[in-house]
Amino acid sequence: MIRFDSVSKRYSEGYDALNQVSFELDAGEMAFLTGHSGAGKSTLLKLIMLIERVSRGQVFIGNRPLNRVTSSQIPYLRRQIGVVFQNHHLLFDRSVFNNVALPLQISGMRQRDQARRVRAALDKVGLLNKEHDNPLSLSGGEQQRIGIARAVVNKPSILLADEPTGNLDPELSAEIMQLFQDFNGVGTTVLIATHDIALIRRMSYRTLTLEQGRLLQERDEQ
Amino acid sequence: MNRRVNHTATKKPKTKQVAATRTSAKLFKNKSSAVGKHSQYSIFQAWVTHHKYSCVNSLQRLLHPPWQSFLTWMVVAIALVLPLVLYLGLNHAQQLGSAWKNSGQLSAFLLHQTKPLAITQLQQRLSTYPELQHIELITPEQAKQEFQQHSGLGNVLQSLENNPLPAVLTLLPADDFNNPESLEALKSKLEAEPLIELVQLDIAWLQRLHQIMGLAQQLVLVLGALLSLGVLLVIGNTIRLAIENRRHEIVVIKMVGGTDGFVRRPFLYTGFWYGIGGGLLALILLFISVQWISDSFQQLVELYENKYSLTFFNLKILVLVVFGSGFIGWSGAWLAVEKHLKEIEPS
């Protein structure tokens, strides 16, 4: 589903963020991406999102080479990928409902279908009763769950998360991770970037470790 | 334990493989596959829906609260009122001018010492001309008296033995012939009369008036163009600030798959509404101004014994002003959006 083929990314300042990175994530797989800050985790996610382009090598999403994707096609690619951010990127000028509905509004779904999908997604993250609230009135953990609901509302094939538990205490982190496991359980490919080693240890998933832009090791077992 | 991953990708069979292959096959099947079974709801309908939404939503944003928008509307309105007032004034001047245009007159100077009988015969002959509707004779004596009264050279004339002034026929052309070309033709025809020495056509001042009007018209156009450009830039700048204020929203929208068009739309409508609002406000200001000066205008016109009242623009021009302004606003927004939206990308 996600395949990196000798991918290098050098920023214009001459800084090598990724160096000859190769791996493949099967459809329906769940994996962690870890490493110190500055190791290239965010860059790797940005390459998948086409926020950045590779300097060398190839990235494939579902067998589609991303360097063939033109900039006008990028939005349609991003609609296939749900993303959860550390600072959740919610919009505080609208309700929880409208935050979650945003990807559906963008893809032009009919209103009543939107409502059904949004409520299903909110139900999944356990916040159906907050749909009319402003996200600003919610706790950090709740905001993160709204972010997750938005990421999955249009049923993407791939779910990426960039430090989704960065600001949360261990108990809330575990809840969030359980959500990711649930989505993985219904066939979504999940890749979670985190430096929370303790969290990774608790869960037995494949782990990709980056160090100074290189992919170091694969831990298949706990 | 630190083994480097070799360049060939490592595969790992999983139990979810079956479900996953299904998802994979679905991926990228078509652009709207994320919408899945809703794809019968066409992209066009979605596009129309978002246009409607952006149109209404951008207006709602401007009206809640309206004060900020009102200031922009006011700036636009004032910039539009100035050329509109000039245009309205010019319009009226042209209408008045066209009333005066039919006041072309001919003065036919007869040969010196033409006998009164011959003059009467000439008058009779001229009265058969279809080009003329009125003939008036000024005898040399009348001319002399008038000259003495108005020229201040009365004594000089007194000292002359003979009256040097010829008889003059003042000729008023028929309405159908009261235009520069026909008058010229009529002039030649009259000059062919043996008793008429000279025909003077007094339309030079009218031509000059028309020249001035033409100049004023161009001035209004230039001013209108400059101030429209001003409106364009003001709205463009307002939209630039709006884009800056909604930077985070734009980033999020782009991140979850919003196209440039989707991001652009609300701003274009915002510019449109700034233009429309400014245009409407300009008409209100103009209407108030016209009411204000209407009375003094009426008094002025009455001095010229003219039945004429100050009128407002007709509906066609009103609609044109409002939507023209809307179009300028939209264009200004377009400029701002093209320049600044590209700079805002997720990072």
From TrEMBL, chain A:
Residues 2-222 form the ABC transporter domain. It is a peripheral membrane protein. Homodimer. Forms a membrane-associated complex with FtsX. InterPro entries: AAA+_ATPase (IPR003593), ABC_transporter-like_ATP-bd (IPR003439), ABC_transporter-like_CS (IPR017871), ABC_transpr_LolD-like (IPR015854), Cell_div_FtsE (IPR005286), P-loop_NTPase (IPR027417). It is found in: Cell inner membrane; Cell membrane. Belongs to the ABC transporter superfamily. GO terms for biological process: cell division. Keywords: ATP-binding, Cell cycle, Cell division, Cell membrane, Membrane, Nucleotide-binding. Part of the ABC transporter FtsEX involved in cellular division. Important for assembly or stability of the septal ring. The keyword rRNA-binding does not apply. This is Cell division ATP-binding protein FtsE. GO terms for cellular component: plasma membrane. GO terms for molecular function: ATP binding; ATP hydrolysis activity; transmembrane transporter activity.
UniProtKB/TrEMBL annotation, chain B:
This is Cell division protein FtsX. Residues 105-199 form the FtsX extracellular domain. InterPro entries: ABC3_permease_C, FtsX, FtsX_ECD, FtsX_proteobact-type. Keywords: Cell cycle, Cell division, Cell inner membrane, Cell membrane, Membrane, Transmembrane, Transmembrane helix. The chain crosses the membrane at residues 70-90, 215-239, 272-293, 313-337. PANTHER family: CELL DIVISION PROTEIN FTSX (PTHR47755:SF1). Pfam families: FtsX, FtsX_ECD. Part of the ABC transporter FtsEX involved in cellular division. Residues 222-329 form the ABC3 transporter permease C-terminal domain.
